[in-house]
Amino acid sequence: MLRPSKGKKWFKPVFDLDDNLPAKKIALDSPKVKSQDDEKNLQFASNTNILNNVRDSNWMKNFDPVNVEDLAVNNKKVLELEEWMKNSCLKLTNDILLLSGPVGCGKTATIQTLASKYNIKVTEWITPLDIEYPSEYGDYEFKEPQTKKFLEFIINSANFTSLLDNNSCKLVLVEDFPNIFLRTPAEFTEVLTFNAVTLTGLKGALKRASTIMNNKFSSTYNNPTTEIIDSVVNSSGGDVRSAILNLHFACLKGSTCNLETSIIKEKESKSKTSTRRKKNVSNKFMTLGKDQTVSILHGVGRVLNPKETVTEHGHKTLTHNPKDIIEQFLSHPSSFINFLHENYLPHYSCAYDVDEAATALSDADCMLAEWREQICQEYGLYTAVSGLMLANKSPVPAWNPVRGPKTMKVIYP
Amino acid sequence: MSLWVDKHRPKDLMKLDYHKDQAVRLKSLVQQSDFPHLLVYGPSGAGKKTRIMCLLRELYGSGSERLRQETMHFTTPSNKKIEIMTVSSNYHIEVNPTDVGIHDRVVIMDLVKNVAQTHQIDSAGQREFKVVILNEVDDLTKDAQHALRRTMEKYVSTCRLILIANSISRVIPAIRSRCLTIRVPAPTETEIASVLHAVCKKEGLSLPPELAMRIAKSADRNLRRALLMCEACKVQHYPFTSDQKVPEPDWQIFIRETAAMILSEQSPKKLAEVRQKLYELIIHGVPPDVIFAGLLKELVCNCDMSMKCKIASYAAQYEHRMRLGNKPIFHIEAFVAKFMAIYKKFLEEALGDVF
């Protein structure tokens, strides 16, 4: 949420109220830096130059976008946000905007860049933890309630500006909106949704990062090859922040110089996922990047709307292999099968297909009931998933909401 | 005011209305000093429990009728606390081990051990043993049945078991051979009618014989159901008329409606509606095997002979799987889907012949 201030009409306060707020972010990042420091210390005790470079308290900042053109976010979205900023901040109307989007798609970065472009001060709120350490008597003391803190913060930051800045406009950036105020999200008049960053956007951002590496930190990093950049892009899944982190890790100089063999090994262990459209093989890190775990609802969707691709030989195969789907989530088999059972019917159009599917589920239930053999659980799940996927010869394309399974407890009067 | 079923339950072996020969034998069995474990089986509403209570009265006198309810607590090997309702007198304890699902083994072992380790204080005028009554033995897990077999042998001196089951096909042979098995067949329709007359006479009502016969016919040879229906008839319309409507159990009507739905249309959408109905039945405590039987009975009416055969065999197959599995709805639904597929194919072929 952003909130421009009416600060112009007010006197500047005697003391600055909000200078300790961003401290948390730095605190979060610093352990990583430290551990990297340690590594380097072991490997290049003599090379002080590198240490100097990495000692920067927040090295991620090195790669932060400076201009609007550097952003990996879709241009249209940036324009929209810019438009809103111009409207609300520069014309001094009080406005609230809700920005939403997956992690690492560049929400905060876009705001920061735009704000610096228009010379707007950004004040940041990070929701604090509620619970304090237990007292001597072992009971937890609650500090001030979050609501109170938050309201105080809003009032302070909206009404007073810092002594140290001279400009008039101000944005209040609330990360992790305190959920106590989130009862009615519809109250936000303006909502802007960001999507995950596209592959080309990511590539652009990483290219820029690599030029920064080349120019400023050539002593720390190897020059990332296009292969490495491709691999990073593939393994990050639209998350700029994690992509930069991965790039950082993949290009660190120490590993290539001294640990040549391990790097070769790592290259060998990269899994090759062929993207059919571009007809070239791109790599994905095995050891880096996000794990492709699928949420249970996503998994249900994949099973109930099976997609087929035709191979070169004319065979049809499922895009998502049942085995992969099973491996990709972590919940108990029976809960997943209950979800499937509750939701599979609307996706079927033919009574014959339903017959096959229902039989598969019935088989699976028998197998799941066999608790003495652990492997039976897996087989049961496999039977259910592949049975449902293969039985559906003519899926209904319509969207159906996923419902939770029912509890079938007998109700005694 | 209690229901007629409980109010007019015979309390003496000699006052039973039918299977009198068996009653005489039971009486002479009890009068001898030794008394084996019993396995009483028969369809529901045939009078198993009535006979057992009579037997206990014969053994211990009227003290066995002073019942109290207790909740007993057990701890499973995995440290899960479970509790179970028991009904007991000074001389016997009755429990339904299937109430705790897969933990029934713990209940059986601990309960029998508890009971068997306490001897009767005053053994002079009393029997030397207590009685443990276990309900629904055929629904016990295999584990529990094997545990039962061992405990039976171990504590035979201080405690006798009376097991109740609907069918002994699911009781392991080891238990069957250790017990005296007593079959209590369902009463015939004329027997039911005569019981109805007797009860109505005790209540001071006059029951026309035609109505009694009709109630007996629609009660499916289940005496308890017949008495409940008779009482429902009385509430609905009294004095009785011979052509008054005999109220049917709601779940029977419900199952019939469900079957009609299945026959009306064979599509995934219809199956979803049927599933809601099945949920309703299960939630209201209608046992899944009764749902299976009811559906099958209604569905095969509309089939020719070869299809009847096929569908009955599928019903048996899915019912068996239901016993193996955890969630009955999966298997009932699979059966309904199978029927829909077969029936749809049949209809399409029949239509193909027409054109």
From TrEMBL, chain A:
<protein>
    <submittedName>
        <fullName>(African queen) hypothetical protein</fullName>
    </submittedName>
</protein>
<keyword id="KW-0539">Nucleus</keyword>
<dbReference type="InterPro" id="IPR004582">
    <property type="entry name" value="Checkpoint_prot_Rad17_Rad24"/>
</dbReference>
<keyword id="KW-0547">Nucleotide-binding</keyword>
<dbReference type="GO" id="GO:0005634">
    <property type="term" value="C:nucleus"/>
</dbReference>
<keyword id="KW-0067">ATP-binding</keyword>
<comment type="similarity">
    <text>Belongs to the rad17/RAD24 family.</text>
</comment>
<dbReference type="GO" id="GO:0005524">
    <property type="term" value="F:ATP binding"/>
</dbReference>
<dbReference type="GO" id="GO:0033314">
    <property type="term" value="P:mitotic DNA replication checkpoint signaling"/>
</dbReference>
<keyword id="KW-0227">DNA damage</keyword>
<keyword id="KW-0131">Cell cycle</keyword>
<dbReference type="Pfam" id="PF03215">
    <property type="entry name" value="Rad17"/>
</dbReference>
<dbReference type="GO" id="GO:0003682">
    <property type="term" value="F:chromatin binding"/>
</dbReference>
<dbReference type="GO" id="GO:0000077">
    <property type="term" value="P:DNA damage checkpoint signaling"/>
</dbReference>
<dbReference type="GO" id="GO:0003689">
    <property type="term" value="F:DNA clamp loader activity"/>
</dbReference>
<dbReference type="InterPro" id="IPR027417">
    <property type="entry name" value="P-loop_NTPase"/>
</dbReference>
<dbReference type="GO" id="GO:0006281">
    <property type="term" value="P:DNA repair"/>
</dbReference>
From TrEMBL, chain B:
<comment type="function">
    <text>Subunit of the replication factor C (RFC) complex which acts during elongation of primed DNA templates by DNA polymerases delta and epsilon, and is necessary for ATP-dependent loading of proliferating cell nuclear antigen (PCNA) onto primed DNA.</text>
</comment>
<protein>
    <recommendedName>
        <fullName>Replication factor C subunit 3</fullName>
    </recommendedName>
</protein>
<dbReference type="GO" id="GO:0006281">
    <property type="term" value="P:DNA repair"/>
</dbReference>
<dbReference type="Pfam" id="PF13177">
    <property type="entry name" value="DNA_pol3_delta2"/>
</dbReference>
<comment type="similarity">
    <text>Belongs to the activator 1 small subunits family.</text>
</comment>
<dbReference type="InterPro" id="IPR027417">
    <property type="entry name" value="P-loop_NTPase"/>
</dbReference>
<keyword id="KW-0539">Nucleus</keyword>
<dbReference type="InterPro" id="IPR050238">
    <property type="entry name" value="DNA_Rep/Repair_Clamp_Loader"/>
</dbReference>
<comment type="subunit">
    <text>Subunit of the RFC complex, an heteropentameric complex consisting of a large subunit RFC1 and four small subunits RFC2, RFC3, RFC4 and RFC5; the RFC complex interacts with PCNA. Forms an heterotetrameric complex with RFC2, RFC4 and RFC5; this complex has ATPase activity but is not stimulated by PCNA. The heterotetramer of subunits RFC2, RFC3, RFC4 and RFC5 interacts with RAD17. Interacts with CNTD1; this interaction facilitates crossover formation.</text>
</comment>
<dbReference type="GO" id="GO:0003689">
    <property type="term" value="F:DNA clamp loader activity"/>
</dbReference>
<feature type="domain" description="AAA+ ATPase">
    <location>
        <begin position="34"/>
        <end position="190"/>
    </location>
</feature>
<dbReference type="InterPro" id="IPR008921">
    <property type="entry name" value="DNA_pol3_clamp-load_cplx_C"/>
</dbReference>
<dbReference type="GO" id="GO:0006271">
    <property type="term" value="P:DNA strand elongation involved in DNA replication"/>
</dbReference>
<dbReference type="Pfam" id="PF21960">
    <property type="entry name" value="RCF1-5-like_lid"/>
</dbReference>
<dbReference type="InterPro" id="IPR003593">
    <property type="entry name" value="AAA+_ATPase"/>
</dbReference>
<keyword id="KW-0235">DNA replication</keyword>
<dbReference type="GO" id="GO:0005634">
    <property type="term" value="C:nucleus"/>
</dbReference>
<dbReference type="GO" id="GO:0003677">
    <property type="term" value="F:DNA binding"/>
</dbReference>
<dbReference type="GO" id="GO:0005663">
    <property type="term" value="C:DNA replication factor C complex"/>
</dbReference>
<dbReference type="Pfam" id="PF22534">
    <property type="entry name" value="RFC_C"/>
</dbReference>
